[in-house]
Amino acid sequence: MRPLELRSADVRPPSTSRRALLAGSVGNLVEWYEFGVYGSLATVIAANFFRYGGSSGAEALVAAYASFALAFFFRPVGAVVFGRLGDRLGRRPTLIVVVGLMTFATVMIGLLPTRAALGAAAPWLLTVVRALQGLSAGGEFGGAVSLMTEYAPVGRRGLYGAWQSFTVALGLLTGAGTAAALASALPAEAMNSWGWRIPFLLALPLGAVALWLRTALDEPPPPPATAARADIVPVGPRELARAVVLGIGRIMGWSAAGYTFLVVLPSYLQAALGASLREALFATALANVGFAASILPAGALSDRVGRRPVMLGGALGVVVLALPLLHLLQSPSTSPWSRGGAVLLAGALVGLMAGPGPAMLAEMFPRRVRCTGLGLAYALANAVFSGCAGLVITALIARTGDTAVPAYYAAGACALSCCALMSLRGRGHREPLG
Questions:
Q1: Residue 2 CB: number of other CB atoms within 10 A?
Q2: Which helix (H) or strand (E) holds 321?
Q3: Does pLDDT of 30 surpass 80?
Q4: pLDDT tens digits, residue range 385-417?
Q5: Banded model confidence at residue 53, pLDDT cuts 50, 70, 90
Q6: What is the pLDDT, as a whole number, of residue 9?
Q7: Residues of 50-65 as b/e, b for ≥16 C-beta within 10 angstroms?
């Protein structure tokens, strides 16, 4: 094992760490705001872009989720391209580029002509814009998490990394909440005709704030001390690839359960259980509230007891409770309060994995490949287990008629994650980053 550079227990001004935390996390809010909007309005987008003369609503929804999934498969490309830039040129310039690209692509969705206006070219244009979003999102996570954890005070890396996940929750919640508010305020015809564009256009002021914060940020200083870390891999391609695969295994449950409960839920409730758009969006907002409420406490707790017990608790909770929680939603006799509690709990279980997850990934890679390594692990896990969630769940329900598919999907991925999480070292969270 070659020696690796480590940061000594230096103390930076609290204001510097807070600025880095804010600048690193605000781009995630913009990114996941759009994903929350797209997931919440998937049925409306499907009708406007993917439904044609002889197609059914279910076929159009599958096509909309296929476009959604395709964007996720551009994330690994973005993770490699922007990750290498972040590792070689610095975190700050890379984060400025990716948030600018994400803002541009999101606003473009709000301006695109629909299939009724442009014909068959409309869904292809939407897919191209989604691909640009995938590229930018792939570079966002690695750079932002590297920035936040490298600036984190000693013993608070889990909490600082959890802010990345917390702003994901805020973005999803803001996106779902905006869509729900518009669905309540506008007549259904207006919402389907032009109202759906408003949430995408609102990304412009959000992105402008993110750009302003990031241009004022300083690059993290290099770590001054040297030491060896037993759990950090060397930077050879083979060792790096192994660490990426292990990282995917550790977060695949987070990815699958997160998208099942937080993004796919609205269209699932409408298509499979006959809920109205407003009811489905309200349930999704509640799930995201539970998710947001548990993230920061989970990250802080992982700084005290370690990443493994907290993330295992969330993954095992999904394995055990996914099917019972889904049965509560499906039962006609379930009260509204019980349904609300079920989606809140589902979101909170995901938060137990998402809180410590960013710091756990950052601790797996040395600084000189951290943006690339953790970004690639996260992007691949999301491409396979998040981006495909809506497509797989919707298609399997349509083929089998089994409305419990979402529970099987989330629980199965979390069961596999439990195996990978068992390899986490007990005291890695207390050691300095390489």
A1: 9
A2: helix 307-330
A3: yes
A4: 887 777 788 788 878 888 888 899 999 999 999
A5: low
A6: 40
A7: bbeeeeeeeebbbbbb
**What integer pLDDT is reported at residue 324 of this predicted model?**
92
Confidence band of 1 (pLDDT split at 50, 70, 90) = very low
How far is the C-alpha of 27 from the C-alpha of 214, rounded, in Å?
Answer: 9
Name the region of 298 (left: φ>0; alpha: ψ -120 to 50; beta: rest): alpha
Per-residue pLDDT at 360 exceeds 50: yes
153: its two tokens = 């005070």
CA torsion, ordered 227, 228, 229, 230, to nearest 10 deg: -160
Three-class SS state of 233? coil
CA quadruple 255, 256, 259, 262: dihedral sign: negative
The type of residue at 263 is V
CA separation (Å) from 225 to 5, 10, 91? 6, 10, 20
pLDDT on residue 6: 38
Ordered DSSP codes for 93-110: HHHHHHHHHHHHHHHHHH
Burial degree of 416 (CB within 10 A; 0-12, 13-18, 19+): middle
**Alpha helices (runs of H) in 152-231, residue ranges in sequence order:** 157-185, 188-190, 197-201, 203-215
Question: Is the four-CA dihedral 263, 264, 267, 270 of positive or negative sign?
Answer: negative
Structure tokens at 61: 């929804």
Q: HSE on the CB side for 8, CA within 13 Å?
A: 4
